[in-house]
Amino acid sequence: HVQLVESGGGSVKAGESLKLSCVYEYEYSSTCMGWFRQAPGKVREGVAAIDTDGAVKYADSVKGRFTISKDNAKKIVILKMSNLKPEDTAMYYCAAKYGGCTLDATDFNYWGRGTQVTVS
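^ that's the sequence the OP posted. Answer follows.
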């Protein structure tokens, strides 16, 4: 049974920071953990991803502002978001896939239920 549970969303003002956490319950020899977001009326987009070796990918829109990290022992993936902008407002989802990382939501097999981030 694969389970991903996000937490840490909330409402903040532009320029402020938030930290999202995702607790996961599986790991294979090669796993990519990613964060995605979806705003109302928009497609789900990849934000950041990290593979088993710690290599990371970021969407251009968040580079320099968001940082993804992973604690393998605690099985937690963290997304630190700083200098938040109103356009970052969305439901944020944690996801997992076998193998290497992409930022394409269609590549990911397992999803959490999401946590809402609102920036005003």
